[in-house]
Write a structure and sequence with these properties.
By secondary structure, the chain is an alpha+beta fold. The chain has four helices and 20 strands. The chain binds FE2/S2 (inorganic) cluster and fe (ii) ion.
């Protein structure tokens, strides 16, 4: 994958899924192991420097990661501190494990594989406001590139065709004009329409209400949407973590300041919407965004046209 992608921060797990026991994750064709030690999460490459064993199958004891094959022990900075076959020998630098920084934000664990990390993406202050309830749905594996998934998330012309089982009205397909602003981190736009965000069949409606959806993209693969409801705000973080050029994992925590229902109901509604999107995203050809050659576009695709342009300007030929 393109080296330029290495400097960005990506989510690799939900905070709640990372406990003392080592777990595996994948990012940019790199297998990772992560575990929670004291008050810090350790992220390292999931490959023992001795014989390539997956360390995520090993154990963690008091901040030390132990390989299941020959018992090499690694400290939190990746240094090998014990080699059981030669207990009196101080293990050489050859046995050092590459580690990466870990940041816990928005209910997720983020890491960066590059040597000079880009600034960490700061989102709006609702995420730090205790008045906003947070729900973090299960991560969803996507058989398409991260770019495809993000483009689908900022697409405003598909609601009436794809989300007819969850919130959209098939008769309301026309897309009002909107404009896109570009800044050094990506793009943002407000999309105002009469497409309601209430669950179909919930009995809740807002007649004549104009729904404002404020979208943001932080390059390369982080998007954020604030839906302005009649009684509050719903924020959706759409973090597409690039596993490989044709695979991603979607993390989609939400926070809101009005009554929606139980956590399980929020997760269920969210899962049904993303399942509708996933069917589209996983069946587009090719599996990545073709940045060099152009697909045909219409005016409602403005956000996607800008997004593809910005990815191209990063030096990517596919995304
Ligand atoms: S493969 Fe890990 S200790 Fe040998
Ligand atoms: Fe969608």
């Amino acid at each position: 994958m393109h080296a330029e992608l290495l400097r960005y921060w990506y989510p690799i797990a939900r905070s709640e899924d990372v406990r003392e026991r080592p777990v595996a994750a994948s990012l940019l064709e790199t297998d990772l192991v992560l575990y929670r030690a004291d008050h810090q999460i350790v992220v390292a490459v999931d490959r023992c420097p001795h014989r390539g064993m997956r360390l995520s199958l090993g154990q963690h004891r008091d901040g030390v990661l132990i390989c299941p094959y020959h018992g090499l022990e690694f400290g939190q900075e990746g240094r090998c501190i014990h080699l059981p076959a030669h207990p009196r020998l101080a293990p050489s630098q050859q046995f050092k494990l590459a580690t990466y920084p870990a940041v816990e934000r928005y209910g997720l664990v983020w890491t960066c594989l590059g040597d000079s990390p880009a600034p960490f993406p700061e989102l709006n202050s609702d995420w730090d406001d205790p008045a906003f309830r947070k729900v973090t749905p299960d991560p969803v594996p996507i058989a398409a590139s991260a770019g495809r998934q993000v483009e689908g998330f900022i697409d405003v012309a598909h609601f009436a065709h794809v989300h007819t089982g969850t919130f959209a009205d098939p008769a309301n397909a026309a897309v009002p004009a909107y404009s896109v602003e570009v800044d050094e981190d990506g793009l943002r736009f407000d999309y105002c329409s009469t497409v309601s965000n209430y669950a179909l069949g919930s009995g809740t409606t807002a007649r004549d209400f104009v729904w404002r959806r404020s979208f943001e993209v932080r390059l390369p693969y982080l998007a954020h949407l604030t839906v302005h409801f009649p009684g509050g705000r719903l924020n959706i973080l759409n973090g597409a973590s690039p596993v490989a050029s044709d695979r991603a994992v979607l993390f989609s925590p939400v926070c809101f300041d009005f009554e929606i229902g139980t956590d399980e109901a929020v997760k269920d509604f969210n899962a049904r919407i993303f399942a509708e999107d996933r069917l589209m995203v996983e069946n587009q050809q090719p599996r990545h965004l073709p940045l060099a050659s152009g697909d045909a576009s219409f005016a409602a695709d403005l956000a996607s046209v800008y997004y593809r342009r910005l990815l191209r300007q990063m030096g990517l030929s596919t995304a």
